[in-house]
Amino acid sequence: MSAKILDGKKLASHSEEEIKKEVLTLKKHGIAPTLATILVGNDPASETYVRMKRNTCKKVGIESIAVELPEATTTEELLETIDDLNNNPNVHGILLQHPVPSQIDERKCFDAINIEKDVDGVTCLGFGNMSMGIDAYGSCTPAGIIRLIKHYELEIQGLNAVVVGRSPILGKPMAMMLLNLNATVTICHSRTQNIKNIIKNADLIVGAVGIPKFIKIDWVKQGAIVIDAGFHPEKCGDIDLDQMDKISSAYTPVPGGVGPMTINTLILHTVQSAKKILNN
Fold first, then answer.
1. Catalytic residue among 7, 117, 118, 120
2. Could you report the per-residue pLDDT of 183-238, keeping only the tens digit for each?
3. Which structural domains are found in the chain, ordered by start?
4. What value does the mean pLDDT of the chain take?
5. Is the dihedral of CA 242, 248, 254, 255 positive or negative?
6. Which string of DSSP letters, residue by residue, matches 213-226?
7. Among 33, 91, 189, 209, which is least packed, fewest CB within 10 Å?
8. Among 97, 213, 238, 240, which one carries the catalytic annotation?
């Protein structure tokens, strides 16, 4: 039997239709869901990501505010900008595009975002709340992966899950989310010894290491669930997906798997933030 393809593009497209309806309902109540994006400097990749996010907002009827700051912006100037957006009642979500120029204290600026508007799931408080099972917006890529897992009704409880990568917005929150679903979780990283053998014992693998095809096909156990959270210019992810349909029980394609779920989750969180105003 061939593997189940976890189609993030299809799920994101279906979700967009549902979000459009939610946005129309909110607008009837005088609430226009609004996402503020902050781009500091002129990194071409960051400009592309922000443009994609704003285009998706437009597609589903969400308002977006584009804040573009010069390369020489200081930490204090960026904090002032974030403070203004925190205090703007018409802004429901704030996205600070990573990375910022090196002179800026990125962590300090992330943590200045109001927890209620942290729709990208980047604050320490949001991570802590999510880890403890308290209501919070999880980091968008791992949260999108969990939505995929739940949509395809994959049973995670009791599985031996291996997350390859420990970044603060992907590997670490991914591990906590899987732990909250009662998986047994191992995190591998650049200092991990015998990484191949650890991955070979995994019932569920999440590739989040940022190296093209780092995880080889012969590292994957027969019947494993394979989630590839990487994307590279070579149009491949962090896992060698060639022949994956013959080995895994389910896997995310690249492109079209995890990627579409990331932006969709950001948009969904923004609408959820706006809905809280209505519910209150």
1. 120
2. 999 999 999 999 999 999 999 999 999 999 999 999 999 999 999 999 999 999 99
3. 30-116 (3.40.50.10860), 140-259 (3.40.50.720)
4. 96
5. positive
6. T-B-GGGSPTT-EE
7. 189
8. 97
**Interhelix angle 44-60/258-279, nearest 10 degrees:** 50
Q: Mark whether 53 is an active-site residue.
A: yes
| Residue 209 Cα distances to 18, 119, 167, 196, angstroms | 32, 23, 8, 14
pLDDT in tens, 57-109: 999 999 999 999 999 999 999 999 999 999 999 999 999 999 999 999 999 99
Which amino acid appears at position 60 of this protein? Answer: V
The span from the CA of 117 to the CA of 121, in Å, is: 9
Distances (CA, A) of 267 to 16, 107, 109, 141, 273: 9, 23, 21, 12, 10
Quick check: helix, strand or coil at residue 146? helix
Predicted TM-score (pTM) of the model is 0.96
| Residue linked to tokens 């500091």 | 40
